[in-house]
Specification:
The chain contains six helices and twelve strands. With 325 residues, it is α+β, with helices and mostly antiparallel strands. The chain folds into two domains: 227 residues, Sandwich (Immunoglobulin-like); 50 residues, no CATH class.
């Protein structure tokens, strides 16, 4: 009798274990209990404004003025869920992150994003135009879904070995509602794939690659580093991000994505017109130098005997060409 009861209890225990395993298998992964799960009933639209604060006043050390001057690459933004990572501090850079951080190329990142969309871990990807100055604005419109409420983005610093700014898995949803506005101050990161210490240093591949790390006023702890400011407790924000929710009806869609806002705070602009003018002046100066070499000393000596007014006029013209600004 006792043996029969034991067999029955054992059989029931085994059956209970099987039922629990089946329930867990069909239920899937447990939802987080810390309130990070988005339960909003509808999607949301946001205007994302990226602002660069990279100026010689804030970051005077080795500030790149030419070849190329300080500027920002195109911005790439991804809306996704907890199963996707564009980049992460302390983790190794993917091939897409490496290509973007070193060269500003988005091909590999876009490929990875398309594959993630097939798996429904990414809902949308956006790109904006680059900013030709260290100080300036760019913006885009991003659409967020309740199942993909996280936002990640990257912007490469140009010039730099493999440095970028960005955010990783910023949650724009809070419980059952979307956040109205979020502002984030951005700091530089090292992708860990290139060992250059300065903005314009040659390419030195890091072997083996290191993990993505944050650049601070004292890390890397080397005086040659462009961000090494040992007297500062922390670096000022080199860029910032403002994300504002849009409230409008579905029949009033406004196309605001992939454009550059007017740069009203820049103390100096590196425009193509100025560069072209300086190039023309340099070309003219080179022509004058060639002429001087061909004609020789006798010609220059002969010019001294000419009318003083003409000599002064010629010298003034040469001075204007040499220093036009």
């Amino acid at each position: 009798m006792m043996s029969s009861e034991r067999q029955t209890c054992s059989w029931r225990r085994q059956l209970l274990i099987v039922l629990v395993k089946l329930c867990l298998a069909f239920a899937g992964p447990l939802r987080p209990l810390n309130g990070t799960e988005c339960t909003a009933k509808s999607p949301a639209s946001y205007i994302l404004v990226f602002t660069g604060h990279w100026s010689p006043q804030s970051f005077p050390k080795q500030y790149p003025l030419f070849r190329p001057p300080a500027q920002w690459s195109k911005l790439i933004a991804v809306s996704h869920n907890h199963h996707f990572r564009l980049w992460e501090e302390g983790a190794a850079a993917s091939l897409g992150v490496q290509k973007f951080a070193e060269l500003g190329l988005t091909v590999e990142l876009m490929k990875a994003g398309k594959e993630a969309r097939k798996k429904r871990t990414v809902s949308a990807m956006q790109r904006t135009a680059g900013i030709p100055n260290g100080i300036g604005h760019s913006s885009t419109e991003v659409h967020m879904q309740p199942r993909s409420s996280l936002l990640s983005l990257m912007v490469k610093m140009i010039p730099s070995p493999d440095w970028f700014v960005g955010v990783n898995s910023l949650n724009l949803c809070e419980g059952n509602h979307w956040k109205q506005e979020v502002t984030v101050n951005l700091q530089p990161y090292d992708a860990g794939t290139n060992s250059g210490f300065t903005f314009s240093s040659p390419k030195f591949p890091t072997s083996p690659p290191e993990n993505i790390s944050k650049i601070t006023s004292q890390v890397p702890n080397h005086p040659a580093n462009s961000f090494y400011y040992p007297r500062l407790k922390e670096l000022p924000a080199i860029a910032s991000l403002k994300i504002t929710r849009q409230h409008r009806s579905a029949n009033r869609q406004t196309v605001l994505s992939n454009h550059i806002l007017p740069n009203s705070i820049s103390p100096r602009r590196f425009s193509g017109k100025v560069t072209g003018t300086l190039s023309l002046v340099q070309l003219l100066l080179k022509m004058f130098q060639i002429l001087e070499g061909v004609v020789g000393r006798d010609y220059r000596a002969e010019q001294k005997n000419k009318n003083k007014t003409q000599t002064i006029s010629w010298c003034h013209f040469y001075k204007v060409l040499k220093d036009p600004l």
